[in-house]
Automatic annotation (TrEMBL), chains A, B:
This is DeoR family transcriptional regulator. Belongs to the SorC transcriptional regulatory family. Keywords: DNA-binding, Transcription, Transcription regulation. Residues 74-318 form the Sugar-binding domain.
Length: 342, 342
DNA sequence: CATTGCTCCGCTCATCTGAGCGGGCTACTC
DNA sequence: GAGTAGCCCGCTCAGATGAGCGGAGCAATG
C-alpha cells in the first residue's frame, strides 16, 4: 500500500495548501473577511489567519503593483531603497529635453500636493525654476498655509521672486501666504542676524518651526545649476566649492556625502537645516542633466523624505557608484516585512 | 502654454494614481498598516483607504492565487461557480485509472478533514468504496464525534461495513463513534419505521439532527456506480430508474435536475435529506468515469457544500450541457464583491 | 440667488484583525 | 517514563478597519 511521503494533514500537504489557496482566494480576490471565511469553513478565524500565512509562506499568493505607465515604478523603488527615502517618484516625461523633464516633475509634484495637503498643513516653499513652474500647476483648494522658505530676489531667468511664487500658490489654492523680502544670502553673519530679527521677517521665519511639509528643489553646486550658486559672488562660490559644496536645498549646502556644510548657513536668511530636518515631509524635486552628483548628495543628507524626479535624471543618479567611505552601507530602507508572519 | 487634458490632482491623474500605487505597494507588499501609511504621508487613514480603492479600481493591484500543482484551480473555480458550491477541489491524481482517481480524492478529503475538523464537530460518514479508502488515510487526532449516516452491510467489493468504517476512523483519530447495525434499505416502509425506532438505532439516528459535517460520496444510478443501486433488488432498481433516479448520496436519491426523490426515502434507514440540508458542511467526493451526470445531479440538489473530485471527472461534469429546463439559471455563486469598494 | 445634485472629506461606531499568551499534545531524549 | 522542546491551537485585548453619515464646496439649473 503505497503512501505519499508527506502525511495527509501535515503542513505543506496538498490538502493544507489547497485549503490555503481557496482561503487566500476568498480573502484577497473576493474580499471576504476572515470571520466570514471561518464561519463558512467551520474553523476558527485564527485558523483562517494561519492558513493565509501558509499561503503567503508557500508563495501561493502573488500581489503585483502596476504603477501607471507614466511612472517608472522600478527606478522609483530602487531610489527609495538606495537612499532610504520614504517615497520616490520617477516620472516619465511626455516632452523631451531639460525643460520637458522639469515641467513633468513640477506638474507631478503639483498633483501630489493637491492630493496630500490638508488645511492643517503648513507648507514651506523654496525658490527656483522648478518651483516657479510648479506654482502654475496647483489649482485645488488646499486652504493651507504657504510659507516662504528663504529670501530671494528676482533673477533674469526666473521672472518671479520667492515672494511672488508663494503668493501665486496661495491665491490659486485659497491658502494664506507668509512671505518676507530679503536676499537669499547676505555678505556677513551680522547683517543676516539683523535681517532675521527684523520685524516682518522674524514672524515669517518663526513659521519655519511649525512646518509640516516643505517643497524644495535640489540644486547642484555649479553655474546655472543652483539658485544659490548663481546668487553669490565669485569669491563666495569658490570658497564654498573649496569647502566641498556639492548640493543645495533652499540655500543650504551639503557635501558629497550628505553632511550639511555650515559655511554659508549663518549668512542665509531662511529655513535652517534643523528646521527642515524636523519637518515631517520634505518633498524634493530633482531634474536636469549632469547634476546627478548633487541629487545623490542631497538625498544622503537625510533631510529629504520624498523625491520627485524624471527617468533620465533617476538613471544618472542610480548609475553613480556607491560611496565607498563613511560608515557601513545604510540599511536600504527596510526589508519587506509582511504583517501576517510568524 | 500647453496643458495636460486631465487636471493635475483630479482622480485618475498621474499623481493620484502614482500615489495610489505606492500606497498599495506599502499596504499589500510591505504589509504596512493603513494608519502607518497615513502617518507617513500626513493624510487621514480614510484618504489612504480611498487611495487603496482607486488603486484597485484602476487595476493597479493584481492579486493572483496559485494553487499547488496537484490541484486544478481553474476547474475548481469553474465547478464552484457553476453549481454554487462553497468550495470545490479538483485533484490531479498521481496514479492513472479509476482507482488512482478515487484514491487521490479520498486521500485529499482525508487531509481536508484533518485540517478542518475540530473536537466540537459531529461528523457524519456515509458508506462506499471511496469512504473506505478515506478511512485509511485519516490519522490526525481530531477528537470529534463520528456518526454513521446510513445502514449498510458488508458487500463483496467493500470488505468493511458502514459500522467498521466509522469505527476505524474514530479509532485512528481519537474520536467517539456512533454506529448502528441495519441494512441500507428495507423492503417496506413499516419495517424501516420499526428499525428506526429500535433501541440502539434510534439513538444513533438522533445524532443526525446535530451534524456539523457530513462526508458522502456521489453515486450514479447504474450498476456498479452506486452502493444503493447495488444493494437493491432488480425490481426496486427498475422502479426507481423509472421514477427518474440519477444520483445517490447515502441512500438518498435525486433526479437529473437535483430534486430529491421521495420514492426510496421511507424505506431507508439513515440520514434524511432535510437533515443533510441542515448540515453546515456537506463534503461530497466524486470520482470514477462516466458518472458525470450523477455528479451534476447531486450538485444541483443544493445539498452539497464542498466537492472533491479529480481532473477527468471534473472535465466530464463541466462538459455536460447546462440543463435548459427549470427556473432561470442559478446565480452562479456570487459575483466577486471586493470589500474595499465605493 | 436659491435649489438640487454631485463629489470629496473626515468622523463615529461596530466589527474585524494582529500580537502575544498559555494550555495541551507530540516527539524526542536521557 | 519523566522531562522537555517544539508545535498547534484558540483566547484576550488593544489597535486597525469598514460602513455609513453628515457637512462643505462646487456646478449646473431653474
Amino acid at each position: 500500500m503505497a503512501r505519499t511521503p508527506a502525511r495527509a494533514g501535515a503542513p505543506g500537504s496538498v490538502s493544507t495548501l489547497a485549503l490555503a489557496a481557496t482561503v487566500a482566494r476568498r480573502f484577497h480576490v473576493e474580499g471576504m473577511t476572515k470571520v466570514e471565511i471561518a464561519r463558512q469553513l467551520g474553523v476558527s478565524r485564527f485558523k483562517v489567519a494561519r492558513l493565509l500565512s501558509t499561503a503567503v509562506d508557500h508563495g501561493l499568493v502573488r500581489i503585483e503593483i502596476h504603477p501607471p505607465a507614466s511612472l517608472d515604478g522600478e527606478m522609483s523603488e530602487e531610489l527609495r531603497a538606495r537612499f532610504g527615502l520614504r517615497s520616490a517618484f520617477v516620472v516619465v516625461p511626455e516632452e523631451d529635453g531639460v525643460d520637458g523633464g522639469r515641467r513633468a516633475v513640477a506638474r507631478f509634484t503639483a498633483g501630489l500636493l493637491e492630493e496630500v495637503v490638508t488645511p492643517e498643513d503648513v507648507v514651506g516653499l523654496a525658490w527656483g525654476r522648478t518651483i516657479s513652474v510648479l506654482s502654475a500647476g496647483v489649482r485645488a483648494p488646499l486652504h493651507c498655509r504657504c510659507v516662504q522658505l528663504s529670501g530671494a530676489l528676482p533673477r533674469p531667468d526666473v521672472r518671479e521672486s520667492a515672494v511672488d511664487v508663494v503668493h501665486r500658490i496661495a491665491e490659486a489654492t485659497g491658502s494664506s501666504a507668509v512671505t518676507f523680502y530679503a536676499p537669499l544670502a547676505v555678505p556677513d553673519a551680522a547683517t543676516a542676524e539683523g535681517l532675521r530679527s527684523q520685524s516682518g521677517i522674524a514672524e515669517a521665519l518663526a513659521e519655519h518651526d511649525s512646518l509640516t511639509r516643505a517643497v524644495v528643489s535640489i540644486g547642484y553646486w555649479a553655474a546655472g545649476e543652483s539658485t544659490a550658486y548663481d546668487s553669490l559672488s565669485p569669491a563666495d562660490r569658490d570658497a564654498l566649492t573649496a569647502a566641498g559644496a556639492c548640493a543645495e536645498l533652499t540655500g543650504l549646502l551639503f557635501g558629497v556625502d550628505g553632511t550639511a556644510l555650515p559655511d554659508l548657513a549663518d549668512r542665509v536668511v531662511g529655513v535652517t537645516v534643523e528646521q527642515l530636518r524636523r519637518t515631517p515631509d520634505v518633498i524634493a524635486m530633482a531634474s536636469g542633466l549632469g547634476r546627478a552628483l548633487g541629487t545623490a548628495a542631497a538625498l544622503r543628507s537625510g533631510v529629504v523624505s520624498t523625491l520627485v524626479t524624471h527617468t533620465t535624471h533617476a538613471r544618472q543618479v542610480l548609475d553613480l557608484p556607491e560611496p565607498a567611505p563613511r560608515a557601513a552601507r545604510r540599511p536600504a530602507a527596510r526589508p519587506s516585512r509582511p504583517r501576517r508572519s510568524p
